[in-house]
Amino acid sequence: MPVEDAPEDDEVRQTYNFAPGNHGLVYRADVPDRGAGGGSHGRREGAGESNQNQEEERDDVEPLKETRYKLQAMKWGLVPFWTKRNPDYASVLRTINARDDSLAQSGGMWNTMKQKKRCIVVAQGFYEWLKKNGGKEKVPHFTKRKDGQLMCFAGLWDCVQYEGSEEKHYTYTIITTDSNKQLSFLHDRMPVILENGSDALWTWLDPNRTEWSRELQSLLKPFEGELECYPVSKEVGKVGNNSPSFIIPVASTENKHNIANFFGNAKKDMVEKEEKKEIEEEETAISKKGVKIEQDGQESRKTVEQSGTENNAPLPLPTPPSATAGSKRAHETDADDDVSSAKAAKLENRNGPPSSAESPEKKSGRKTRSGISNGTKGSPVKTGDKRQKITNFFNQ
Questions:
Q1: 162-184: per-residue pLDDT in tens?
Q2: Distance between the two ends of the chain, CA-based, in angstroms?
Q3: Residue 73 burial by CB count (10 A; 0-12/13-18/19+): exposed, middle or buried?
Q4: CA–CA separation, 152 vs 129, rounded Å?
Q5: Higher-pLDDT residue of 47, 244
Q6: Residue 162: closest CA among 95, 109, 83
Q7: How far is 43 from 28, CA to CA, in rounded Å?
Q8: How far is 127 from 131, CA to CA, in rounded Å?
Q9: If 154 and its partner were Cys, which of 54, 192, 221, 312 is the partner (CB 3.0–4.6 Å)?
Q10: What's the CA gap between 392 and 396, in Å, rounded?
């Protein structure tokens, strides 16, 4: 939406607990303070609620050839232009909303505003309280668009100068209508939400429409799009509170104030600490038992491609006769069952294939483990099997 003018950052600030009397962001046509279509507010002496809709005759003004739109900071709780003194808070609360059916009537306090001072109130969503137990308990709910876009509430605005003051005060109200099916469980009323950038929105804002009509009245209807509504923290009920968590569902895992999440996170932290402690204890035990792997300094670790009837996997190079024979892997002490399979064994490499009367392993009282069987029982090689043993590759 086009914006020709916008308020300073300090005039409007983001808040998660917007209350009546706060300054919100309003989008409207850039027209004089008296509204679109010209004319004068005109105030008679002793004017009150009985004749508040009366105005002096309007001047004839040509329709706007080019409409400019602006964002403006205004106070929530409309104060009509004929008000002489700053109203108290209770009076402001009575004008934070305007019913759509009251606008359908001719005259009334909204008569001037609905014809010449229509606007859009921009917000992320709105709160409504669900009454339970006969009204004894109230549960706050937050409602927003499911597609994540900002909400555009239909509203009315006005400008007032109190007696004895030159300061102008801009205020607004939000128009409400019957609740749609999705929110009927929560309340019987809801704000009029206009679709972003729709023809209905521009019709509502059109400053050249200075007479109330059935077309304008027909725009005030329940929202037909998809909304998302869920219970939130009761802390939002206190005006002084303000936190991003107020628009997070109570049942969400992101909500730190959820008591279930509090105990769930505590349990998770405890499990992680226990697991970390067990790992540290295991590492300490292994360190005390002195489990380590030794390697001869002259042992060769190079590989070479060899061919054979089995897979051509790269194999270690044979150690030259002049070098120290064999590779040594030994534990300084015996470990438990998890490390007992890694007991010391000494393998000797020879230049030629081993004979049947000669074994590459030295006989000793200690049990050795094969470097290829990994201690598991495999199928015995049948007599006459034409396949070569994989150990033959080490002796080629």
A1: 999 999 999 999 999 999 999 99
A2: 82
A3: middle
A4: 21
A5: 244
A6: 83
A7: 24
A8: 13
A9: 192
A10: 7
Whether the Cβ atoms of residue 173 and residue 155 lie closer than 8 Å to each other: yes
User: Any idea which residue has 């769930």 for tokens?
Assistant: 264
Q: How many Cβ atoms sit within 10 Å of the Cβ of residue 205? A: 21
DSSP collapsed to 3 states, the chain: CCCCECCCCCCCCCCCCCCCCCEEEEEEECCCCCCCCCCCCCCCCCCCCCCCCCCCCCCCCCCCCCCCEEEEEEEECCCCCCCCCCCCHHHHHCCCEEEHHHHCCCCCCCHHHHHHCEEEEEECCEEEEEEEHHHCEEEEEEEEECCCCCEEEEEEEEEECCCCCCCCEEEEEEEEEECCCCCCCCCCEEECECCCCCHHHHHHHCCCCCCCCHHHHHCCCCCCCCEEEEECCHHHHCCCCCCHHHHCCCCCCCCCCCHHHHHHHHHHHHHHHHHHHHHHHHHHHHHHHCCCCCCCCCCCCCEECCCCCCCCCCEECCCCCCCCCCEEECCCCCCCHHHHCCCCEEECCCCCCCCCCCCCCCCCCCCCCCCCCCCCCCCCCCCCCCCCCHHHHHHC
Structure tokens at 139: 């549960």
Token representation of residue 73: 């900071």
Residue 190 tokens, joined: 């809801």
Token pair belonging to 164: 């004895």
pTM over 0.85: no
Here the tokens at position 63 are 């329709």
More confident residue, 270 or 341: 270
**Three-point CA angle 342, 344, 350, nearest 5°:** 115
Q: Which among 32, 33, 31, 112 has a CA at the least distance from the CA of 66?
A: 31
What gap in Å lies between CA 142 and CA 252, rounded to an integer? 13
CA distance 122 to 285: 64
What tokens does 55 get?
């105005």
Residue 304 CA to residue 394 CA, distance in Å, equals 11
Cα-based torsion angle of the residue sequence 244, 246, 249, 252 in order, rounded to the nearest 10 degrees:
50
| Higher-scoring residue by pLDDT: 227, 299 | 227
CA 117 to CA 103: how far, in whole Å? Answer: 13
Residue with tokens 């697991």: 275
pLDDT digit string, tens, across residues 24-79: 999 999 999 998 876 655 443 334 444 444 444 344 445 556 889 999 999 999 99
Between 28 and 348, name the one with better pLDDT: 28
Sequence letter at residue 254:
E
